[in-house]
From TrEMBL:
It is a multi-pass membrane protein. InterPro entries: T2SS_GspF_dom. Keywords: Cell membrane, Membrane, Transmembrane, Transmembrane helix. Residues 182-310 form the Type II secretion system protein GspF domain. It is found in: Cell membrane. The chain crosses the membrane at residues 12-35, 118-139, 145-163, 293-315. It holds the Pfam family T2SSF. One of its GO terms (cellular component) is plasma membrane. This is Type II secretion system F family protein. It comes from the Bacteria. Its main location: membrane.
Length: 320
């Protein structure tokens, strides 16, 4: 009797275990159908937020008619380019150089091509007026013609020199403010903002330090809204600035877009590196200051010092 009771209990335990196992298997199989897919919902929300930001940026750029990124060429320059058939003669390096200087669109290219032709004529005419009429130098004719030709050559290279000087000043302004912009960008990204919203926020805040950097970041935000390939927008930022620090950050942004890597740590490292580069540049300028001051001190300071020291002695000697 005890054996039969024990057998019945074992059978009941086996049946109960089988029931629990079947129920658990059903729960495991049916669980994905009852639980919400939060990852898919978040991905949809991110896509919708990105599209909303793009539409907002497009509307904002269309509403700001005063801020035109591309200027139309002036009529005089257009006539010169059309008359000399210079349209399409510019190379990629010229366009890249003008973009780095902050000149974009057809207008600056047309003005640059026209000035390359008008500046030599203008400088030659001005030099001839001064040499032959106003100053009336007593030099031989070939010397006067050489002066006129030198002025014409300077006029030919003057537009390129002006553009390169503009590039240098622009890069200095961007380089000084770039580490601070990275810190602001890191704060925005760490708070959960998207890269487009972070760039727009930083461009509005960094304008008090560097208008050039604010302009470049605003243009990058606009390109992220318009261009289909987001990588091209980042590459354009690196190409327009021509700075190694910006190129490193652009590489990090492209990798984050392509592989989904963490952007905060990369931005933190890039910000520290750019800050160290700015400090090293300041130290180099400080180290180069004493040699630069040597000649001014010899020319201006030492004669005055000698005069102050020797004048009383000379006066005493003259009294004797």
């Amino acid at each position: 009797m005890n054996t039969g009771l024990l057998t019945g209990n074992v059978d009941m335990l086996v049946a109960l275990s089988a029931t629990v196992a079947v129920f658990a298997a059903i729960i495991v199989v049916a669980w994905p159908y009852f639980v919400r897919d939060e990852l898919a919902e978040r991905m949809v929300q991110v896509a919708n937020e990105s599209e909303r930001i793009r539409l907002r940026e497009r509307g904002r750029l269309n509403a700001q008619n005063k801020q035109i990124l591309r200027s139309e060429p002036k009529r005089l320059y257009k006539l010169v380019v059309d008359y000399l058939n210079l349209a399409g003669t510019e190379d990629s390096e010229t366009v890249k150089m003008l973009r780095m200087a902050g000149y974009r669109g057809e207008g600056p290219i047309t003005a640059y091509l026209a000035l390359r032709q008008l500046a030599p004529l203008g400088m030659a005419a001005l030099a001839a007026l001064y040499v032959f009429v106003i100053l009336n130098l007593g030099y031989p004719l070939f010397v006067k013609l050489a002066i006129v030709m030198a002025a014409a050559g300077f006029g030919y290279y003057a537009p390129a020199l002006y553009v390169r000087n503009k590039i240098t000043k622009r890069q200095i302004s961007i380089r000084r403010s770039w580490p601070d912009a990275l810190d602001l960008l890191l704060i925005c990204v760490g708070s959960g903002m998207g890269i487009e919203g972070a760039l727009r926020k930083v461009s509005g805040e960094i304008g008090s330090q560097s208008i050039e950097l604010a302009e470049e970041l605003s243009l990058t935000t606009a390109e992220l809204s318009y261009l289909q390939d987001r990588r091209k927008a980042y590459e354009n930022l690196a190409e327009r600035t021509g700075l190694d620090g910006v190129k490193g950050v652009v590489t990090s942004l492209i990798q984050a877009e392509k592989y989904g890597t963490a952007l905060s740590q990369s931005l933190r490292v890039q910000a520290q590196e750019n800050r160290d580069m700015r400090m090293n540049e300041a130290e180099k300028k400080a180290a180069a200051l004493p040699p630069k001051l040597t000649v001014p001190m010899i020319v201006f300071f030492l004669p005055v010092l000698f005069a102050v020291i020797l004048t009383p002695a000379i006066i005493q000697m003259m009294k004797i």
